[in-house]
Amino acid sequence: PGNSKSAKSTVVPPGPPMYLDLVYIPNHSNRKNVDVEFFKRVRSSYYVVSGNNSAAEEPSRAVLDSLLEGKAQWDSNMQVTLIPTHDSEVMREWYQDTHEKQQDLNIMVLASSSTVVMQDESFPACKIEL
């Protein structure tokens, strides 16, 4: 009840971590839906980052920074692979600005060099072995 705009909610409430092999970061990696708490709780070997809309700030630099902050609080230094679905200016700048921290946290950003063609559509692809 009441005005929901004034209430602040966290997408992922505090609690014990969940371990997954592959996670698609929801809603084109929009900062309104993913925060540091998400990455503290949802721990994965692979995160897929979609979004190629700079006007909508997707993917969001804040989400990418939240990955670094959240992963820094993990109790292990397991390798994490970030898989962007598009080559975006935001992703390139973030990669360059935070490359040293990514290395410290054992985060690798995977660049796709393959393309899948299906009928009239083509898109970048990468192979993930779990």
Task: Sum up the structure in keywords.
microtubule binding; MAP1B protein; actin binding; 25% strand; 130 residues; alpha/beta; 4-stranded parallel beta sheet; disordered N terminus; two-stranded antiparallel ribbon; globular; single chain
Can you tell me about this structure?
One of its GO terms (biological process) is axonogenesis. This is MAP1B protein. One of its GO terms (cellular component) is synapse. InterPro entries: MAP1 (IPR026074). There is one protein chain. This protein is α/β, with parallel strands linked by helices and 130 residues long. It has four helices and six strands. The chain has a four-stranded parallel sheet with strand order 1-2-3-4. Strands 5-6 form a two-stranded antiparallel ribbon. Helix 3 links the parallel strand 2 and strand 3. Helix 3 runs parallel beside helix 4. It is globular, with a radius of gyration of 16 Å. The chain starts with 17 loop residues before the first strand and ends in a 5-residue tail after the last strand.
